[in-house]
Fold each of these.
Amino acid sequence: MEAVNQSMVSEFTILGLCNSWELQAFLLVMFTFLYLITILGNIFIVLLIVTDLRLHYPMYFLLANLSFIDFFLSSVTTPKMITDFLKENKTISFGGCMCQIFFGHFLGGGEMVLLVSMAYDRYVAICKPLHYTSIMNRQMCIGLVMTSWIIGFVHSISQLAMIIKLPFCGPRELDSFFCDIPLVIKLACTDTYIQEMLINADSGVLATICFILLLVSYSFILFTVCLHSKDGVSKALSTCTAHITVVVLFFGPCIFIYLWPLSITWVDKFLAVFYAVITPLLNPAIYTLRNKEIKNAIKRLQC
């Protein structure tokens, strides 16, 4: 009975990004602006691809799903962070904390797999152009998207299952602006070595497999184009720069947050902000600025 009572935590205290009210006021305005731009930008891309018949191709179908995920991913932590800037005592309920963990890993894991799907689409388009329409058909596109959602869900539920039953009876302060497993698991009043190893292995395996598949896909693309064209490298980089940039921006913070052995608080907070706030904003911006068809579709709207 005592162990059960120990685990009945009603809320956690969030320390946030800083203690200065002046700085918090500045961050409130800045992050509110960035969040609105992120939401509007991702919704705009989804609606543009859905309504413009010239963009009804596999690459843009996957891009619309990426923006759809980023729309929700940015909403997992950012609204809570913004409202907390207005509060002196920042808290989050135990259930709310678990929800942030679940949806953060659900959407993050799904986005990893979706980025692999987008790389596979570019591989087929460049390396097997004559078979592109037969390989990347409607069923394949839907299957790739469904696979990303399923893997994201399985990854998230497995992570949550390893932490939700832990007893929490000691300090309840999270030195961040949101709940995440590396921070929450430190507050458990029991030995969590096994859980930490399993959680790191789960996240590490998913991230490593996705990253290797991405490297293999883009290596084949560069190799294939170089064989068939003197200007192959520049053409391949021009085609895939947007994809590669998004991959680096997405996987970079993940590797440092979940796989880097050293923990430096201000670095972790910066990377967490970058991952939760900046990355969902950069994805639509990068694809919009780098993609000729998207820019032409925007021009058609203006006419």
Amino acid sequence: MIIWKHLNIFFLFLLVEKCTLTSHFLISGRQELMLVPSVAFRHRPAAMELTALAQPTDDWILFAEGWLFEENPFRAMLATSILATTVHNIDKKRLAYFTGTGKRYKSLCVDGLKHEMCTRTDTHGLIETQFQVSNNDIEQFRVPGGRGGKVEYSVSTTDKSLREKGEIFLCDDHGISVISDIDDTVKITGVTSARSVIRNTFSGEYKAVPGMSERYRHYESKYNATFHYLTASPDQLYPFLREFFEREKFPLGSYHMRHFTWFDSNFFQFFASQSFIKQKTNILHMFFQKTRGRQFILVGDIFQKDPEIYANIYENYPEKILKIFIRVSEKKLTNRLNQVFKNIPKDKWVTFVNGYDLPETVF
């Protein structure tokens, strides 16, 4: 109960965002612009039938996502003091991202893909925009990255004081994609324990589930697969997850995350909230609906709601899902899965404890 007491104090404190005293002279700090790697699909006019085949000259719809924020040294200092009672060796940079303040309604310029466009941040300082680009332009700007290639773009403030480069990974109509969860699927987080979640988020070096990067690289090579990481983790963690992925040599790909706000006062529950289930389901629908002949391998874990989410998705797109892999704590732990996957053929789903348990050949 002590851990919950400290966590509740910590997240109650984070609600100081609403306090006028700290919203002025106490919280000013360095501004930063963060862009999260996103995805692009072939453009489909609304009137086009779902069975229509993509043409090589089809335009693309590109999604751009990011966050413009200001660090809050005062709030970060107090949060560090509070967390220090239960977490050792706090990474102050990670904590600074969680105690930062989004810059709302700020104009930003998107360029690097021939035509410049403008957008604005939302109430949380988030950038969530999409734009249409011709296939000719895509081919002109396509660079190596993942198996489908990627395009790079830039976002800057109107005064050019901040400028950041972003990546958009191309997901064409045909081929194979691996859509993977992160926490307790490829990275050890301990989502069933509040203490573990906080410790593994704010301190220490992120640890990989053994064998996962090797197996993912094998699938990337064998099936020319693209990768998309769909996770409950907040996008404030993206820079640190990127460092972890590069260190462990996971395949490049798009990230699909949520944003932690001061209304999500319980960080532990944030990982298991109903809003995450809805968001993850919507992202999966997006991938299946915006590609024609592409097939998918879904990878998740039993510790959250991945089995239920994947089972519901399978009912809608059985022909598009090649395999479902679910990480468990021990191989015999399948009672829940037998019930959840009762309407899915037995050869369509497999459990694993680490990456070395995953088959080298999926189909």
Amino acid sequence: MSNKEGSGGFRKRKHDNFPHNQRREGKDVNSSSPVMLAFKSFQQELDARHDKYERLVKLSRDITVESKRTIFLLHRITSAPDMEDILTESEIKLDGVRQKIFQVAQELSGEDMHQFHRAITTGLQEYVEAVSFQHFIKTRSLISMDEINKQLIFMTDDNGKENKTPSSDTQDEQFGTWRLRVTPVDYLLGVADLTGELMRMCINSVGNGDIDTPFEVSQFLRQVYDGFSFIGNTGPYEVSKKLYTLKQSLAKVENACYALKVRGSEIPKHMLADVFSVKTEMIDQEEGIS
């Protein structure tokens, strides 16, 4: 009882240290005081930052959707009679994606990109995947990060509309030039996702009787896998996590090339797709996927 009374008495004495008139005055805070004005400015700054973050999330979602549509379009090349028409249409779609990235660059003007990177990284990864897929179809090579970033320099005229002829890198935002740089992590994750699309392209090509594309894709994926192997566990966690999926895609493509090399002459072309679909299911079961 004595402890309870003591603790209760302590709480009572603690409250009695503050007279009633002072506590009432504390409730009536002066809104024009320097402290309140400072906190109001903090509130406005945080609200503006939160609104900007939400706008960037919506733009990143649009970039992701349009980039996926471009990838789906590029997959039609394996069965389309005229490849140039598909590439032209894909370039138009990628220009639309870059318009969204231009809006992202305007939102990030004067801001630290790394504070908002989480909001836009998904869209940038999908854009890298779409651009690198188109570049591989054209050149059978991997587009560099510098080439991607050169396409993300936007110059506007006096009316604020984009000018298709960007100036040199020496100009900045005050001269109507905006730029957005893809980070190395965005680039690596986009390239890692590209390997899955190349695996699908390989299988589709085989189904259409194209026996050259699988060997080109296999050689390219081997080089990409070797490059990721050099990074190992020293890179970001997301990169090392996708290395397993990359290895699976490489195994499926190499299995297709093996079947073409060994049994290609005895399997009719219209049955190749069925053979590879069965072998792909067998690989997935061995890897514990199914």
